[in-house]
C-alpha cells in the first residue's frame, strides 16, 4: 500500500459548516469520477498499529484536470477528534491519502441517471456531473435530488438546472418532500439511481426504490462490491 503525503493548498468555506480542503496532487496519483480515498492526519501511522481515529473514508470532490484533490466535509461545533484536528489545519499542513478507489463511475448506457444524496454526500456527485458536462456520451439525462435540512445547499453553481445540457437539479429541506420526489423519479423503470449518504439513508432509499419496482442492478451505492449484498438484498416484506 502506497501512502501519499501531500499538502493542503487551499481551504474553501462552502457553507458555515462545510469546508473543502484542496490538496496538492502527487505526481503519480490518479483517480476517476466517483472516487473515494482514505484521508489521514499526521501521526496516524506513528505507532505499531494505525490510529483509526485519525483516518476517515472520504469522497474526492474534484476531477484530475482541476489539479487538486478535493475533500469536502461537514464540521459541526460538536465533532469527533478527527474533525476537531482537521478544523485547526491550515494551508501548508501535511495530510496523507491512500487506498483510492471508485465504486460509482458514471454509467454510460444510454439511460437516464438519477443522483440521490443527503447533505455533503453531494460532494461525491460533483465530479460525475462535471464529467457529464464535459462528455455527455451515452447518457440521456441526469437529475440530481439532494436533501439538506440546514438549507445551506452545496455547489449551487454546478447543481443548477441546465436544460440545454439535459441536466436538472432539485434541493429539498425535509424527508417528506424528498421521498415524494424519489417516488416520482422512480416512474422511470429503466433509469440508474445513484445513492450517497449515511447507511440509514441508503437503506431508506433502497426500500422506496425497490417498492417502486427498481432492480438491485439499477441502484448504485458508494460501497465495495462485497458490501453491496448487505444493502441490496433487503427483504422488502419486513
Helix/strand structural class: alpha/beta
Terminal residue distance? 41 Å
Shape by Cα distribution: globular
Can you write the helix and strand succession as a string? EEEEEHEEHEEHEHEH
Low-confidence stretches: none
Protein name: Dihydropteridine reductase
InterPro entries: FNR_nucleotide-bd (IPR039261), Riboflavin_synthase-like_b-brl (IPR017938)
Organism: Paracerasibacillus soli
Question: How does this model look, in words?
Answer:
The protein has helices spanning 81-88, 122-134, 175-185, 199-211, 228-232, and strands spanning 4-13, 18-24, 35-41, 55-59, 68-74, 94-102, 111-118, 139-147, 167-172, 192-196, 219-221. It starts with a strand and ends in a 6-residue tail after the last helix. With 238 residues, the protein is α/β, with parallel strands linked by helices. Strand 1 and strand 2 form a beta hairpin. It is built from 5 helices and 11 strands; from the N terminus they run βββββαββαββαβαβα. Strands 4-3-6-1-2-5 form a 6-stranded antiparallel sheet. The chain has a 5-stranded parallel sheet with strand order 9-8-7-10-11, with helices on both faces. It has 2 domains: 4-102, Elongation Factor Tu (Ef-tu), domain 3; 111-232, Rossmann fold (3-Layer(aba) Sandwich).
Write a compact overview of the structure shown.
The protein is an alpha/beta fold and 238 residues long. It is built from five helices and eleven strands.
Can you tag this structure with a few keywords?
2 domains, alpha/beta, Elongation Factor Tu (Ef-tu), domain 3, five-stranded parallel β-sheet, 5 helices, 11 strands, Rossmann fold, 238 residues, globular, six-stranded antiparallel β-sheet, single chain
Amino acid at each position: 500500500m502506497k501512502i501519499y503525503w501531500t499538502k493542503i493548498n487551499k481551504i474553501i468555506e462552502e457553507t458555515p459548516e462545510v469546508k473543502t480542503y484542496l490538496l496538492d496532487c502527487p505526481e503519480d496519483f490518479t483517480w476517476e469520477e466517483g472516487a473515494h480515498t482514505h484521508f489521514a492526519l499526521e501521526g496516524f501511522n506513528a505507532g505499531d498499529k494505525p490510529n483509526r481515529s485519525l483516518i476517515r473514508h472520504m469522497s474526492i470532490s474534484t476531477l484530475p484536470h482541476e489539479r487538486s484533490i478535493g475533500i469536502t466535509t461537514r464540521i459541526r461545533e460538536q465533532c469527533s477528534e478527527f474533525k476537531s484536528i482537521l478544523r485547526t489545519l491550515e494551508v501548508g499542513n501535511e495530510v496523507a491519502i491512500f487506498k483510492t478507489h471508485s465504486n460509482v463511475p458514471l454509467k454510460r448506457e444510454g439511460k437516464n441517471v438519477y443522483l440521490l444524496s443527503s447533505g455533503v454526500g453531494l460532494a461525491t456527485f460533483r465530479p460525475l456531473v462535471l464529467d457529464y458536462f464535459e462528455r455527455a456520451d451515452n447518457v440521456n439525462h441526469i437529475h440530481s435530488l439532494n436533501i439538506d435540512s440546514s438549507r445551506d445547499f452545496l455547489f449551487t453553481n454546478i447543481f443548477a438546472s441546465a436544460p440545454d445540457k439535459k441536466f436538472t437539479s432539485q434541493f429539498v429541506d425535509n424527508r417528506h418532500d424528498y421521498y415524494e420526489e424519489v417516488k416520482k423519479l422512480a416512474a422511470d423503470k429503466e433509469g440508474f439511481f445513484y445513492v450517497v449518504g449515511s447507511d440509514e439513508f441508503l437503506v431508506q432509499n433502497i426500500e422506496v426504490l425497490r417498492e417502486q419496482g427498481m432492480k438491485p442492478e439499477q441502484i448504485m451505492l458508494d460501497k465495495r462490491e462485497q458490501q453491496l449484498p448487505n444493502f441490496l438484498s433487503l427483504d422488502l416484506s419486513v
